[in-house]
Amino acid sequence: MCGIVGYIGNEQAAPVLLDGLARLEYRGYDSAGVAVYDGKEIEVVKSKGKLAVLSDMIHGGKDIKGTVGIGHTRWATHGAPSDTNAHPHLSQSGRFAVVHNGIIENYLELKQRLMSKGIEFLSETDTEVIAHMVEYYYKGDIFDTMVKVLNRVEGSYALGVISVDNPDEIVAVRKDSPLIVGTSENGNFIASDVPAILNKTRDVYYLEEKEIVFLRRDGVEIYNFDREPVKKDLTHIDWDADAAEKGGYEHFMIKEIMEQPKAIANTVESRIKNGRIVLDNITLTAEQIKSFDKIYIIACGSAYHAGMVGKYVLEQLTRKPVEIDLASEFRYRSPIVTDKTLVIAVSQSGETADTLAAMNEAKRLGARTLSIVNVVGSAIAKQSDDVIYTLAGPEIAVATTKAYSCQLAVFYLLALYIAQETKIIDCDKLNDMINELLLIPEKVQSILDKKEDIQYFASRHFADKDIFFIGRNLDYAVCLEGSLKLKEISYIHSEAYAAGELKHGTISLIEDGTLVVAVATIDRLFEKTMSNVVEVITRGATVLGVTKETKTIMADTCNFIFYVPESIDIFMPSLSVIPLQLFGYYVASMKGCDIDKKRNLAKSVTVE
Ligand code: M6R
Fold it and tell me: Can you list the residues of the chain whose pLDDT is less than 70?
């Protein structure tokens, strides 16, 4: 996820762009840049690091002259954060500058084609192909050029383009990535999100898919790809800026919960090509994979919980033994790791001190390392032998939700990839699983569409003192995450138990009205978990059952039931975790907790 701003008008563009980017920095903060047309050529200034670095370089924009420009704040996906990979990107001759938010999925193929025509690439980004293609196809008509380029591009984009040939306009277009247009007497704007322009104008057009807009000093024109003008109503924004930065949501956490269908789709879809899992950037060969006699997963907190799901899934699909350990334990207990061990480190931030140290300890012992990380270019990503990025975009809320969901998605991809490369699963079964994996985002969306059911249930329980979660196997792993979500943001005491374990002690804590959340989504274990549900109900518990749509029988026993769609057992955690995240969020919200800024906690734990 990146942030885009563009401005054409009567004011100097650079300060306007910097001000807009500052309000979009939540969308990406590993590098930033601006491109401004100064009457002769396009001047580009960009820099790795926070926006403040760029702003200092150009004295708040005062050093750059010109009244038309585009700016970008980057969240790296293709190519590590660096000055060169930062946007805007220029075409070969410097006549066109481009900013982009999204992922160009076929960029490698396009890049090779352009390189075969002698075009030189400076960056490792997918975006640079757009800048070169625009120049390559430009024959005097920028509209035709954009349509030609975009018909050749697969993936998602919000694009802003300025050119020396058409110095009095900005061209912008969107597909699957957000882009809005702002209008005012002093000029016109594009932006990834409303807050970027809120102190300049409150009148905006929301662009639809594949709409192309031409911004000039005195107005804007919007067309579809068939060159037909599109008439739109202006929307007047009356939110305050703070709410707008959260896209209208009250907290980043709920915004990020709601972003999960998109985040999972981004993580999965770009790795499935022609029905096969393609992990372009990992160097592990089928022979190396076969040679591993053990897989170790190391992580902390929610990433550890994702790893628990990963363990079950990897064991089931690859038939290799998988151990999981908390990174803070692993590093101090002389783990049995050899050069035949694959060690997988999982971390949203890629900076967690315990996970980094544990991974380096594994390397020292001769293991091959692979990391699953969200922040591109972070320490864990850089120091592991291979990295598979979760494409969740920046996660602001300290309580992780979308990054956790994307970690699950990467475990599914990895397990299916290993099964595919080692041919351990027959082709038909593998295809069925891949097809099912592609359906997860829409199934998650269907759960989010019923969020009010969970909100209502939360309204009955936000004053509870103790809440237990029970489940077996993959459901147990999800319970651990559900319990952590609830307690970290609502400060309600909560524990998760493997359902069969409760009666070995903790059942003594169940008394009249104690809430137990029972997750039962695995067909072959359903009856077993139901026996444990009956045990707690007999002792007075109130039970929220979370199960598949077909298991309506659970409603006869539980006080409240929440159904999630059917899927293959291994994918059920991606679905059953959603009502638990929502429950934690709504309980905390009803208690009036400061959800995005929990006491005692930081987003990135860089100390031991
Ligand atoms: O950045 P990491 O994924 O390595 O962080 C690990 C844990 O600190 C993290 O998952 C933490 O438990 C979550 N923020 C809880 O929601």
Answer: 1, 239-244, 597-608
In eight-state DSSP terms, residue 95 is S
What is the separation, in whole angstroms, between the first and last Cα of the chain?
30
Using most ligand atoms within 8 A of CB, pick from 252, 297, 302 the residue to mutate for ligand 1.
302
pLDDT at 204: 93
Over the stretch 542-570, which tens digit does the pLDDT of each residue have? 999 999 999 999 999 999 999 999 999 99
Which amino acid is present at 274?
Answer: N
Q: Which fold has domain 254-438?
A: Rossmann fold (3.40.50)
CB of 395 closer than 6 angstroms to any ligand 1 atom = no
Which residue, 405, 392, 425, 418, is CA-closest to 481?
405
What percentage of the chain reaches a pLDDT higher than 90?
80
- Domain 3-234 top-level CATH class: alpha beta
**Which residue shows structure tokens 């931030």?**
349
352 Cβ closer than 6 Å to some ligand 1 atom: yes
Q: Is 301 in the pocket of ligand 1 (CB under 6 A)?
A: yes
Which ligand 1 atom minimizes the distance to the CA of 349?
1
CATH node for 449-593 = 3.40.50.10490
- CA separation for the pair 304, 477 (Å, rounded): 9
Distance 605 CA to ligand 1 centre (A): 8
> Over the stretch 306-325, which tens digit does the pLDDT of each residue have?
999 999 999 999 999 999 99
> Domain spans of the chain?
3-234, 254-438, 449-593
Please report the pLDDT score of residue 507 as a whole number. 83
The answer to whether domain 254-438 and domain 449-593 are alike in fold is yes
Closest listed residue to residue 28, CA positions, set 413, 489, 376:
376
Spatial separation of the C-alpha atoms in residues 539 and 543, rounded to whole Å:
11
